[in-house]
Structures
1.
Amino acid sequence: MNTPRVSRESVLDAAMRLVEEQGFEALSMRRLAAELGVAVTAIYWHVGNREALIAQLVDRVLAQLGDVAPAGRSPRQRIIAVGKALRRMIHDHPHVIALVYEHGRTALMMLPAERALAREVGAAGLDGRRGAVVVRAVLHHVVGYVLLERAVRRGPEQHPTTAELWRDADEIGIEPGLARELGRPVDQDRLFELSLRALVDGLLR
Amino acid sequence: MNTPRVSRESVLDAAMRLVEEQGFEALSMRRLAAELGVAVTAIYWHVGNREALIAQLVDRVLAQLGDVAPAGRSPRQRIIAVGKALRRMIHDHPHVIALVYEHGRTALMMLPAERALAREVGAAGLDGRRGAVVVRAVLHHVVGYVLLERAVRRGPEQHPTTAELWRDADEIGIEPGLARELGRPVDQDRLFELSLRALVDGLLR
DNA sequence: ACCTGAACACCGTTCAAGT
DNA sequence: ACCTGAACACCGTTCAAGT
């Protein structure tokens, strides 16, 4: 009886490395096997099939993520802080969101932040119905924003550049100063913070 | 000289049908060929390779989408109307967003709505810098919201159901009435409209 | 308990060859 | 100009067989 060549953990480790270094689409059973120096079918013994492997990867990653820590004096400030922390957390683990999104477990990823928001909203003294709307609206705004950031960033070098798209804008009734501004690249950090603040202000009014 | 068996258009038609009926992942060159009753390689002659095929599909779909029509009396109402129309448009073409998202051309899909928003924001009398923030914040909110809706809807029947997730909430400092409310299913239409209104209110203040 | 090898049914893509 | 067939390098998965 000789020691096992791989284990569930070593398979997950290698899979995680593959995803982090080469992206989600590089994760194939055969490449994984080659990486581990083992026959493809050995992997199946340890983790089941590909879908199960990904599920276990998602579980592991979600466990690592950790809670978001709110900071600030007023409930309003703390709600905004949770939103910013959530975005930062997702940004710090770009491979995670691909994995989680592709496997349809976004709702679970958002749960810690949802709870943190619920605490702050409760502290702000809102009743259940109005409070739930605030929690969910903020949560949706933040996560949706990050998903879109990802989608747009992934875009190829656009054939028509952003500036060109707005060159003819005044001909179709768009104010020139506005068109010029919209032709510039977006400062995502600034836009995120401004829109989050506006949303929270609108919700707490 | 006999007539061609397929054309660029017939290939795109068949590909579109495949995506609409069986989803994006069902679109393979070989299946497409089988559907058309032709050798796989014939497709390559007409559309290039798979990536090029998808690009042409995206172009065609974006051309079909049409503009969003604003309605309402005040600029504020019209901005909200554009946001709602954009979400409806994306919802009406669920296969489109998969295609566009997967191919990184989300920014182009948003352009008509962005222009409609720019007109309304200009009419509201905001200057360039502030107006651009409003346009982009609303646009990001709406599209991000829809992307997240998609992600969450795709989630498998969660092992822990939503209600269970909030059962122990009061033990970790969450107000019971709020926890009960968060355990209920989300009314997406209502939440979308409320959060959009709040965002616009916060932005126009 | 743990691993291999062969086999099956799929992929996308290239290339020489046919009409 | 338009299409075929063979070939190559990939996939995920199952199954019988080995130790």
Note: Residues 128-153 of chain A form the longest helix (26 residues).
2.
Amino acid sequence: MGSMICMNELCRATTSVEWKKGWGFKSGGFAKLCYNCGSAFENLVFCETFHPDESGWRECRTCRKPIHCGCIASKYLYEYLDYGGVTCIKCARHLDGHSIRPIQIPGDDFPNGTLGSKSAQPLGIENKIDENDFERRKLMQTNEPGQLFQTQRNDKKQDTMLPIGNVGTCFSNLNQQNIGASLFGKPDNEGPSQGVKDMYESINQPSLNFCLSTPIGTSSSGQPFLGGDVEGREQSKTSPFQQGQRARHILPKPPKPSPTSGSESVKGMASQARIARPPAEGRGGRSQLLPRYWPRITDQELEKLAGDLKSTIVPLFEKVLSASDAGRIGRLVLPKACAEAYFPPINQSEGLPIRIQDIKGKEWTFQFRFWPNNNSRMYVLEGVTPCIQNMQLQAGDTVIFSRIDPGGKLVMGFRKATNNVDMQDPQTPNLPSGNGSGETSFSGMADNFPNGGRTSDDTVNRQVPMSEKKKARNIGSKNKRLLMHADDAMELRITWEEIQELLRPSPTAKPNIVVVEDCEFEEYEEAPVFGKRTIFTARSSGDQEQWAQCDCCAKWRRLPFHVLLPAKWTCSDNIWDSRRCSCAIPDEISPRELEALFRVGKDPKRRKLVDNNEDLESSGLDALATVAASDMGDSIGDMGEPSVGATTKHPRHRPGCSCIVCIQPPSGKGKHHPTCKCNVCLTVKRRFKTLMLRKKKKQSEREAELAQAKDQVPPKDEPEIDGMTSGIELLQMNHSENEHMNHSDNERNSNGDQVEEFGPGKGQLDLNCHPNRDDDMLAEATAGMSMTSLVNATNLPLEYLTQNRLESLGNSLLSQAASESEGHHPDNGFVKTADVEPGGKGAEA
DNA sequence: GGGCTGCATGATAAC
DNA sequence: TTATCATGCAGCCCT
């Protein structure tokens, strides 16, 4: 410890009779302070002593005690007040009494409390908790820019709070000082000495406070891992502008409300899984983590974790362990963006040791380092084998990195992939699988979707094979990325649509009207709030109306169609119908009529969802596969699981796919020799040759045009068709194509000449077609074309299709599309045809 | 000879 | 086309 230096920058003493611990780092460590500075810190007079002239001093609204907001040394000694300003922690504690604590924002990014004024409730004003209070708070919380979620540990209304945003992680919701003493079972960092420690603990006692997303403006979450130094990074600020963005980072699965069962739906929601976009923080703006790294969180986890203590958990990212991650090498590859955002910066390849606790409280030290890689870096955690083994993890399992605030200690949790059961919560069924493939199953979701959501059985049935599939497919492949089950996509779509329906402008918000391209937009500075769910119906006359259920008497009231209701609404709020503005007034129509009415009202919705689903599935290239596959007799169920049997090369291709990508041998094995004469190589060569010819033609044509332009007025712009295809030829081509598409099946079946029509033999089509033509053709294909039309659309010889039992048609279409998406020139879609050799055979690849 | 380290390569997704 | 990342592998070190 010879190199000890006091971390009070005004002191910087290198010697001290005794070294004391100061404020906590996000890494879990503590600032080293000399005796004097440490004593000042312990006595809570650090800022008074060393920062009296610095900016950031404010007064406690209650006791007028000066508080140095924005200083790390005081960051836990005050709280933001909902109505602005700050209060010292003592007063906050005193005021806390029976009220719901404001969400703790131990940050210093917003020292003036602007966030607190928006987000929390006035302390000491609302001490009585009643239902209305809760509802209103829910609304307020929803409205909170940072989308903080809060639970009240000992409150009977906890369930009521959950839907709004309780979260759970694989980590204990313990703050740094309490980790060791409770869940983790052993003392960790001793923390600052008693005075401060007591203060910290006092923060924690009254309630459980859980924060999923980064509280906007929290110092800890507003910046990356501190890594054992302060380096001034504590000063990094988050732009307030990001608040709104961050509010969207949480993707809670909203309920599919039931008009009759508010409480039930609330209960159901308690089991929702959440996908939390990690804090948009980090150095150099490299915080745009890919969704596959967003931590998935379930409410069950929170419930399990609802201990006596409070802390703010900031899930950072998660990663599905690859084979090499879980292998004996003991190197866990970290996603670059995550490593740079949440881990300490390292300049040397050898990196630095980093301490991470697992969920049992055991602390592990890994070497966080990087390798140079393609002008970039590849970050790894070395020495993870013991930890991996300790947690009995294997490839396919998910490790989740999170941070406990205050303190910023890194913790590492995990999810087992085999049965989707979290280690901490063996009863928790079907936790998100954790991979980014979209195979994540949201257990309990069906319960939340009584009217059209997936059923529980649905979930269960699908889940088992999903896990197996994931196991088989994820490991060692990037196919895990963002493959989303069609149902999941559908569900998300529904969810967002429903969210849109429920969003209301903040009651206090007044919009600015901005005009963009002659369209007026209302721009709100405050985040929207969730309103009350209503049912829309239509009379026989065609008039539309909506129905809302009173939150007090549960009676249904008819409302004008255009009305937007707040989250809490009662009969007394029914200003549109004075005859039914009281709970004492009976229902307008009988329950049976209501039921019938709502059934009618819901059916269109369901139909809409189905339509959406169809749209979803029939959009784009997948639609082609759908059309083709259904023509081929594939079951819908198969189509519902596009990932089934996807080849390792092409996620969207199936076994048997003969596209040029799928038939290639695995990486590193059986590479084709330069003299290889296989179909693949021949095709590639032909394509290359054709492309080169085309390129040359293009170039010479440009040169000719340039020379021509010098002499005379430039010719009229031609369509974007290069090479030999003139505009007239294009017309001919399109005409030919139309005819082609209108041919009867017999005609089409009878010849491969049509293929030749598009081939180079006619000198019209081949590589020089308009790229959009491809799309047109695809569009036609989606417009209910027949199987044979599809055949023609792809210009594949029927013989080829026959040989491949028609099965690969859809795949060919897909592969063609995939080739484009993989960066091939769009024209290449017809290279296949162009390369067709006389006789209709040719580039079967 | 086995294990470890560091880099290279190739597949894939993202841009 | 580029960036990222999973993994292969050569070379070195240790036993």
Note: The two ends of chain A are 67 Å apart (CA to CA).
